[in-house]
Amino acid sequence: MKSVIHTAHRIIIKVGSSLVTNEGRGLDHAAIAKWAAQISALRGLGKEVVLVSSGAIAEGMLRLGFEARPTDVHELQACAAVGQMGLAQIYETSFRAHGIGTAQVLLTHADLADRERYLNARSTLATLLRLGVVPIINENDTVVTDEIKFGDNDTLGALVANLIDADALIILTDQHGLFNADPRKDPAAYLIKEGKAGDPALEAMAGGAGSSIGRGGMLTKILAAKRAAGSGAHTVIAWGREHEVLTRLAAGEAIGTQLTAQTAQQKARKQWMADHLHTAGKVVLDAGAIEKVTREGKSLLPIGVVAVEGQFGRGAVITCVTEAGLAVARGLTNYTSSETRLILRKPSSEIEAILGFMEGPELIHRDNLILL
Ligand SMILES: Nc1ncnc2c1ncn2[C@@H]1O[C@H](COP(=O)(O)OP(=O)(O)O)[C@@H](O)[C@H]1O
Ligand SMILES: N[C@@H](CCC(=O)OP(=O)(O)O)C(=O)O
Questions:
Q1: Which of 170, 177, 169, 173 is nearest to 231 (CA)?
Q2: Strand-pair partners of 179
């Protein structure tokens, strides 16, 4: 079996708290330096990498002198805010040693549930990748309480994989992967080398005695693999301290547990958009725009739009139709329906003069567009 990471172009790598903070003893400079070196090598192979890092609370507890995890939510949030400074500092320093810049991105559940913020987060991450920066993502713990939390960074990693159409999610943890039972409790447990993301049998193994959904551990990783597969991304769960784990995976070596997505990426993405976002309106395209969008893989510019149907806000999903009414594409719009009515048939150079601002030269950027 060859690792899916070999052919993956855009990869999300999630590192857990115990790895990052050396089991709570403080940020593990040596381990982080090794991942940074390996990620630098992956980028040398032309891959794009986004890092999702936990560890803010664990590091903040140490810095503030808490011996046990606080139960008060605001103390936990204070720990996260303090610890996040350490994370940002160590990642920036470690990647800078390879001439790579980093960016801190803190997200909440509300950010990805709101269309406009979803679109902004998606565009910002795509722009950071285009600029050659490694985004370092964590949950914005300071502003969230239990009900509106992602809850764990395995879930956050999967949502980010969905958000930016990643090909793969690598979850680095303190075990060699998924075992048929919790290896801490069952010494006879064996490693599951491969499986299908979403297979309920995997959840039963990770659920094990006593653990319950949403409380971290292996189950959130298995559920994250299922979620990532929703947009066609494969997942690998591996031990973060395995020698050259990332570069070996990229070379095709099968390490840890590989959970493959069962639906092809483009199909899964269409399905995901169809399931998650309602179509709020339509734009009618002229023949030239149809050609650019459907055959040449270009963005949709306002100049190619001849009519607008319905009311929609910025970030809404709209359908692109031919003058005969045939739906050809769907995507997230940069302009509201009223704005689009003002700029249709106009060159993008006139957008600013007409509206007084410009969100972008495109009505729908090709990154946010799927063909039907
Ligand atoms: N079937 C299983 N296979 C592997 N690990 C399991 C399994 N069931 C439970 N676990 C536990 O999950 C832990 C990893 O989860 P967690 O501590 O949340 O890691 P991280 O901080 O990397 O997210 C392991 O240390 C292990 O004790
Ligand atoms: N935002 C939290 C992440 C908590 C979390 O999910 O931790 P883990 O299960 O170790 O990945 C932090 O940085 O401490």
A1: 169
A2: 191
> Tens digits of per-residue pLDDT, 73-83?
999 999 999 99
**All domains in the chain, ordered by first residue:** 4-269 (3.40.1160.10), 277-371 (2.30.130.10)
| Closest to 360 in 3D by CA, of 320, 327, 305, 315 | 315
Comparing 114-128, 171-185, 209-223, 285-299, the range with the smallest average pLDDT is: 209-223
ipTM: 0.97
Q: How far apart are CA 44 and CA 266, in angstroms?
A: 26
Is 153 annotated to bind a ligand? Reply is yes
Instruction: Give the dihedral of Cα atoms 180, 181, 183, 184; nearest 10 deg.
Output: 170
**Centre of ligand 2 from the C-alpha of residue 29, in Å:** 18
Q: Are 329 and 292 in contact (CB under 8 A)?
A: no
User: How many C-beta atoms lie closer than 10 Å to residue 325's C-beta?
Assistant: 8
Q: Which residue, chain included where needed, has tokens 């990332």? A: 246
Residue nearest to atom 5 of ligand 1 (CA): 182
pTM of the model: 0.81
Q: What is the distance between the terminal CA atoms of the chain, rounded to a whole angstrom?
A: 33
